[in-house]
Amino acid sequence: MSQTDTLAAADRAAALRAQLHHHAHLYYVLDAPVLPDAEYDKLFQELQALEAAHPELLSPDSPTQRVIGQVLDGFAPVRHAVPMLSIRTETDTEASGARAFDERVRRQLELGEDAPPVEYAAELKFDGLAINLRYEQGVLVQAATRGDGETGEDVTQNIRTVGQIPLRLKGVHAPVLEVRGEVYMRRDDFEALNERQREAGEKTFVNPRNTAAGAVRQLDPALAAKKPLSFFAYGLGEVQGWVVPETHSALLDALQAMGMPVCEHRVVTQGAAGLIAFHQAMGAQRDGLPFDIDGIVYKVNSRALQQRLGFVTREPRWAVAHKYPAQEQLTRLLAIDIQVGRTGKLTPVARLEPVFVGGTTVSNATLHNLFELRRKGVRVGDQVIVRRAGDVIPEVVGVLKAERAAYVPNFRMPRSCPVCDSATVREKGGMDYRCSGGIFCPAQRKQALLHFAGRRAMDIEGLGDKLVEQLVDAGIVDSLPSLYKLGVAKLAALERMAEKSAQNIVDALEKSKTTTLARFLFGLGIRQIGETTAKDLARHFGSLDALMDASVEQLLQVRDVGPIVAQSIHMFFAQPHNREVVAQLRAAGVHWPEGEGAAAEQGPKPLLGKTLVLTGTLPTLSRDAAKDLIEAAGGKVSGSVSKKTHYVVAGEEAGSKLDKARELGVTVLDEAGLQALLLSASSAQSA
Ligand SMILES: NC(=O)c1ccc[n+]([C@@H]2O[C@H](COP(=O)([O-])OP(=O)(O)OC[C@H]3O[C@@H](n4cnc5c(N)ncnc54)[C@H](O)[C@@H]3O)[C@@H](O)[C@H]2O)c1
Ligand SMILES: [Zn+2]
């Protein structure tokens, strides 16, 4: 090898070490890596290869030679009685990773060709943070992170908040028993946490691993307690006065018997073939697991053999981590498109240079919403980190800002819906932009039709999920008015539809034409217009034309209508295509007694200002009918009992609401009591 080769190699090795140290610091000390693991691993492997080719370049402080990580200021250092090591990684293709490990083990144990296969225990490699739990006389006295392997951090206070970690071991009173395992965050807990963050307009977390690590290494235990963490045990540290089982699998059984959470997905198997089978089987189940794993750990099962194999500086010789495809990868953001969801929500979607991540090729990923996109600072052309884990849709979780070559303008949400061209709106205080097109927007059509046909709206019997799906997909129904053009022949031609049922639908459509203004308004599916608001509006304006022409100020006069609702109604009727839909529906024969609301408004209001709660089954009145009666009498129906509740109307099988009413001393009525109240109050008022 020439001298220039060696010099170039030395330069490259030094550069790689500097980079690896930098990224390890971000990862292990600050819990805030900027590179995906796969990129870090590439650099790590390049350094390993260089050092193998040029042994003279090896230095004891190389990241390949020792565990990196250091104690964060603010935590007391804990010296590990038994060092906490790393595990050698096999990133090769499925079969060869296990075979390479088995061959090494056999060579080191000096097993001949015809010696029987080595017994292995295989388990999952949980993607979290290693923790050493020290129990003295069976009581948890200290919890420590790995740190640099020799010295970790005392995180006892934070670990005490992890409900799955026993504070006392069952049936163990040994002077010292250190249990090691992984603290992690379940995917559903992680998603829920991020959902809350997004709703609050706060920063979201990148992945469960870094979130869990950050929570454990949080200086304020109260903040740590807010992040739901879980735990799996997989090994031991120092032991005094306890007989360690002879195999790894028996150890895991023993840990489980002490009350330690141990993962059920593990096997004992002979030779490489069994390892390969387990790696493949778990690879197929990986997406469905409730937590992230980044591989399988193979361990020589016999403790005696483990001791014979021993350690190299950084890792045991008797274990190996056989990885799966990474769940985070770097790729380029080609464009940002807008997707319109079933409820009209606009989601920015990243079009990506296709990348293999989490086991599949991904070319689209969600950017969630404008605010998150801005906070992450994502721009078209950027190198972005894509995460795909489990069944969650792939998402862009970060960006390498240093890589940006030129100025790229900030992304903006479109002013009109890319599907239907209706105006887009952002609700005050909300994070989301929406298409205001409603039924007019093909993206929202099915949802809008179902809502229109719903029991509390136009009440079109038989027009459910399946049928709407069929009608829209076949292009037969593309708007609310086109519903009323459906004939028996067209319907009967659909799959699973007979003449009789088609006739029933046509009859139901006909029947629905005679309705009330409140039902019709509610059925239009105007954002923010629930059933109660629709009733209030109908009562207040009495006619649809008056409502359609109302100004925001006039709308604000209606009981319980605030600025957001008023704006939404005004916006809806300001759009010509919405007025057109209304006109067509009326032309199709949909009608209601005009002025009905105004008349009702003048009737007696015996329950004005009263709040009632309904619970259980009433003998004759349906829940809806009771609600209508109460509302017609000026009362309000609420879903939960509080000190502000005036009456609870209870029927059969009334549940916790009844208990709550008794607890708070709220008057409880049965159906007869309600009827009497309506009558006596109204006669009292008219008297
Ligand atoms: N993104 C970055 O910038 C960056 C920087 C540094 C390190 N990293 C990542 O950190 C990892 C390397 O870290 P490492 O050296 O700690 O090794 P490792 O995390 O790959 O392996 C050792 C660890 O595996 C864990 N583990 C999980 N399940 C286990 C089981 N069943 N049995 C035993 N141990 C189990 C333990 O916590 C143990 O400490 C790589 O994935 C690397 O990509 C990333
Ligand atoms: Zn639209």
From TrEMBL:
<keyword id="KW-0464">Manganese</keyword>
<comment type="function">
    <text>DNA ligase that catalyzes the formation of phosphodiester linkages between 5'-phosphoryl and 3'-hydroxyl groups in double-stranded DNA using NAD as a coenzyme and as the energy source for the reaction. It is essential for DNA replication and repair of damaged DNA.</text>
</comment>
<feature type="binding site">
    <location>
        <position position="323"/>
    </location>
    <ligand>
        <name>NAD(+)</name>
    </ligand>
</feature>
<dbReference type="InterPro" id="IPR004150">
    <property type="entry name" value="NAD_DNA_ligase_OB"/>
</dbReference>
<dbReference type="Pfam" id="PF03120">
    <property type="entry name" value="OB_DNA_ligase"/>
</dbReference>
<dbReference type="GO" id="GO:0003911">
    <property type="term" value="F:DNA ligase (NAD+) activity"/>
</dbReference>
<dbReference type="InterPro" id="IPR001679">
    <property type="entry name" value="DNA_ligase"/>
</dbReference>
<dbReference type="GO" id="GO:0006260">
    <property type="term" value="P:DNA replication"/>
</dbReference>
<keyword id="KW-0234">DNA repair</keyword>
<feature type="binding site">
    <location>
        <begin position="86"/>
        <end position="87"/>
    </location>
    <ligand>
        <name>NAD(+)</name>
    </ligand>
</feature>
<dbReference type="InterPro" id="IPR001357">
    <property type="entry name" value="BRCT_dom"/>
</dbReference>
<dbReference type="GO" id="GO:0006281">
    <property type="term" value="P:DNA repair"/>
</dbReference>
<dbReference type="InterPro" id="IPR004149">
    <property type="entry name" value="Znf_DNAligase_C4"/>
</dbReference>
<keyword id="KW-0436">Ligase</keyword>
<feature type="binding site">
    <location>
        <position position="146"/>
    </location>
    <ligand>
        <name>NAD(+)</name>
    </ligand>
</feature>
<feature type="binding site">
    <location>
        <position position="420"/>
    </location>
    <ligand>
        <name>Zn(2+)</name>
    </ligand>
</feature>
<dbReference type="InterPro" id="IPR036420">
    <property type="entry name" value="BRCT_dom_sf"/>
</dbReference>
<feature type="binding site">
    <location>
        <position position="441"/>
    </location>
    <ligand>
        <name>Zn(2+)</name>
    </ligand>
</feature>
<feature type="active site" description="N6-AMP-lysine intermediate">
    <location>
        <position position="125"/>
    </location>
</feature>
<dbReference type="Pfam" id="PF01653">
    <property type="entry name" value="DNA_ligase_aden"/>
</dbReference>
<dbReference type="InterPro" id="IPR013839">
    <property type="entry name" value="DNAligase_adenylation"/>
</dbReference>
<protein>
    <recommendedName>
        <fullName>DNA ligase</fullName>
        <ecNumber>6.5.1.2</ecNumber>
    </recommendedName>
</protein>
<dbReference type="InterPro" id="IPR018239">
    <property type="entry name" value="DNA_ligase_AS"/>
</dbReference>
<dbReference type="InterPro" id="IPR012340">
    <property type="entry name" value="NA-bd_OB-fold"/>
</dbReference>
<keyword id="KW-0235">DNA replication</keyword>
<dbReference type="InterPro" id="IPR010994">
    <property type="entry name" value="RuvA_2-like"/>
</dbReference>
<dbReference type="GO" id="GO:0046872">
    <property type="term" value="F:metal ion binding"/>
</dbReference>
<dbReference type="InterPro" id="IPR003583">
    <property type="entry name" value="Hlx-hairpin-Hlx_DNA-bd_motif"/>
</dbReference>
<dbReference type="Pfam" id="PF22745">
    <property type="entry name" value="Nlig-Ia"/>
</dbReference>
<comment type="similarity">
    <text>Belongs to the NAD-dependent DNA ligase family. LigA subfamily.</text>
</comment>
<feature type="domain" description="BRCT">
    <location>
        <begin position="602"/>
        <end position="674"/>
    </location>
</feature>
<feature type="binding site">
    <location>
        <position position="417"/>
    </location>
    <ligand>
        <name>Zn(2+)</name>
    </ligand>
</feature>
<dbReference type="Pfam" id="PF12826">
    <property type="entry name" value="HHH_2"/>
</dbReference>
<keyword id="KW-0862">Zinc</keyword>
<dbReference type="Pfam" id="PF00533">
    <property type="entry name" value="BRCT"/>
</dbReference>
<feature type="binding site">
    <location>
        <begin position="37"/>
        <end position="41"/>
    </location>
    <ligand>
        <name>NAD(+)</name>
    </ligand>
</feature>
<feature type="binding site">
    <location>
        <position position="182"/>
    </location>
    <ligand>
        <name>NAD(+)</name>
    </ligand>
</feature>
<dbReference type="GO" id="GO:0003677">
    <property type="term" value="F:DNA binding"/>
</dbReference>
<keyword id="KW-0479">Metal-binding</keyword>
<dbReference type="InterPro" id="IPR013840">
    <property type="entry name" value="DNAligase_N"/>
</dbReference>
<dbReference type="GO" id="GO:0005829">
    <property type="term" value="C:cytosol"/>
</dbReference>
<dbReference type="InterPro" id="IPR033136">
    <property type="entry name" value="DNA_ligase_CS"/>
</dbReference>
